[in-house]
Amino acid sequence: AFGTGRFPSLWSELEGLNVPVSLFVGAEDQKYQDIAIEMAARIPKSRICLIQGAAHAPHLENTSGFASLIF
After folding, report:
1. pLDDT attached to residue 24
2. What is the distance between the alpha carbons of residues 52 and 8, in angstroms, rounded to a whole number?
3. 16-39: buried (b, 16+ CB within 10 Å) or exposed (e) per residue?
4. CA gap 24, 4 in Å, rounded
5. Which tens digits make up the pLDDT trace of 37-69?
6. Mapping DSSP to helix (H, G, I), strand (E, B) and coil, where does residue 67 land?
7. What is the pTM of this model?
8. From CA 11, how far away is CA 19, in angstroms rounded?
9. DSSP structure class, residue 27
10. Strand, coil or helix: what is 26?
11. Nearest alpha carbon to residue 11 among 35, 47, 46
């Protein structure tokens, strides 16, 4: 019920974000890396954080690597 296809697109709103944004993505998930690259190009204060040894669920697949980037 909460998949990405269930909500309206907010891509047009990304340019208006004026706060720092970190985009976390697993280094083994090329699809979401490509999406993060597209998002970062639209968000002025953004950075892409690649989590090594992880794919679609980096916060679960490499918890320590994920935590090291947010703390």
Report:
1. 96
2. 30
3. eeeeeeebbbbebbeebbeebeeb
4. 16
5. 999 999 999 999 999 999 999 999 999 999 999
6. helix
7. 0.85
8. 16
9. T
10. strand
11. 35
3-state secondary structure of 21: strand
Q: Which two tokens stand for residue 63?
A: 């918890």
pLDDT tens, position by position, 4-37: 778 889 999 999 999 999 999 999 999 999 999 9
CA distance 39 to 15: 9
Please choose, from the candidates 48, 45, 70, the residue with its C-alpha nearest in 3D space to the C-alpha of residue 59: 70
Compute φ and ψ for 38, nearest 5 degrees.
-65, -40
Q: What is the pLDDT of residue 3?
A: 76
